[in-house]
Amino acid sequence: MIGMRRSCADRWIRDRDMLGIFGAKPDHPLADAREARRVFESFVGMAPATALDEAAGWLESIGAEDKFKLEQRFSLISRFDEAVQAHARRAGRDYLTSPRLGRAQEMRLWSSICGFWAQLARAYEDCLDRYAAQEKKGAEEIRAQLPLLTVRLLRAYGTQLKWEQFRYGPLSVEIWRRLGKAYLAAEHGKFSQRRLAPYPTAPGETTAEREYLKALVFHASSMDSLMPLEIELAERLIQHFLGRIALTAEVRPDNVYWVDCAQALPPTRLAKLPQPSPTLRFFNTSTALDEVAALGKVLEGGEVPGDLNLGGQYSPKIVLSVLRHLALYWAARPPTRSSVRHRVKSRLAVIHGLGRIHARLLGRDGGEAEAWIVEDVSLGGMGAQLPLANNDWIRIGALLGLQPEGGDNWLVGVVRRLRRSTESLGAVGIETLSKTPRAVEADLGGMACEAILLDGAAPGETLRVVLPARAFETDMPLEFAVDGRRVSLQPLELLESGMEFDIGRYRAASA
């Protein structure tokens, strides 16, 4: 996941394996207090991705050394965790908001961040496992630290889950067994609801139960239709409302989701009762909907409340969009489809990007089309399987030109859902925007503009038009020739703004 690191920690693991050193004391650089101090001080001023890679390498090396006492092992892991928290926050902001990242840089940064959280979770889990086995070397000495250890373990796995969701998987179901095991350990130790500050520099308190529940609600909120920045906002909103959602072992009529903490299974909607088990837990997201609705009214008024910690400044419009998404999936009844889905198996020719689609609609060369496999269709769109190799352009909001097998016409659609089944195979949900799109060469305030009409342009009618990104202007008419007449479109509103296109609503009139 994190590539080939070449740090002091890697060299130590390699040399230890080659030389077979098995002394009575830890033969590890961090066993020396002076060397450990030098290593921790070296993180100051280090580039965020480098710091995370280095920390992950050291954490791996600690796990490879069996001679550390448990108290010393936990202390070292905690110090690495605390030493790079600021780096992790900075790297996360860069990944989500930096416009300068190319796809290779984006992937490199993602690998460093996700790799660090995965390694940190494994390191804390190793401590918990050693304690559970009553390891003689320091087990009793860390008993008082178990609540903190478990909270950090659950938060690390929860953060790994979020970062894997940023790439839409593949999500290993094993993470649910690991999360559940840590939570059950906290329950068994009778500290699952003990409040504590997870980090010295982080405001607020949390509990092991709260961290576990946050991961469950995150998964239940159907993140595969949100873009990464929206996923980040969704997690922040979940944190904000979490106090209104309870985790319980009781079977209640109002339960919405269930999970078996001992199984490698994600939380599931309660369509029917699962098989009885002492490790079954339930939660009801609908209990937060009143507060969700209240926040929605504030956001509709154009204001983001000052007590809403989103980790940055965001427009009320984007926060409201994510809030409505959460409300949809937190309702007692699951969202219903607007039209029936029919199972099929057919090929689909696909091109992407406004320029290529525009050229293909005009009968010009729009580049080579890819072949995807349609698995289901409905009035509003389709689901398809696709290869992910060399397809780093695929993301939520990608504009597509689509030609079903056996047809000669092109449709226009947009990716609304994305899920990685494996590293090389994915599945997308596509919304069909138009079955009769039309490309025009338009004039936008004196500038040439490629535009795609999604609807007819009869005088007096309103229609949707796809434009290049940031081209829509509320005071800028769009003019073009079609069917031997000049048409002027008066802008009404911006319907959607993607990374590569705008969709505006216009009213048509003869020029």
Report on the structure:
The structure is a single chain. By secondary structure, the chain is of the alpha+beta class. Among the domains are: 1-138; 342-434, Beta Barrel (Thrombin, subunit H), CATH 2.40.10; 438-510. The chain is 38% helix and 22% strand. The chain contains 13 helices and 16 strands. The chain has helices spanning 8-19, 33-41, 48-64, 70-83, 85-97, 103-132, 146-166, 174-188, 208-220, 228-241, 289-300, 316-330, 354-361, and strands at residues 247-248, 257-260, 268-269, 280-283, 342-352, 370-378, 381-387, 399-404, 411-420, 425-434, 438-444, 447-453, 462-468, 478-482, 485-497, 501-510. The strands form three sheets. It has a six-stranded antiparallel barrel with strand order 5-6-7-10-9-8. A six-stranded antiparallel beta barrel has the order 11-12-13-16-15-14. Strands 1-4-2-3 form a four-stranded antiparallel sheet. Helix 7 runs parallel beside helix 9. It is elongated. The relative contact order is 0.06. Mean pLDDT is 90; it is low at 1-6 and 17-23.
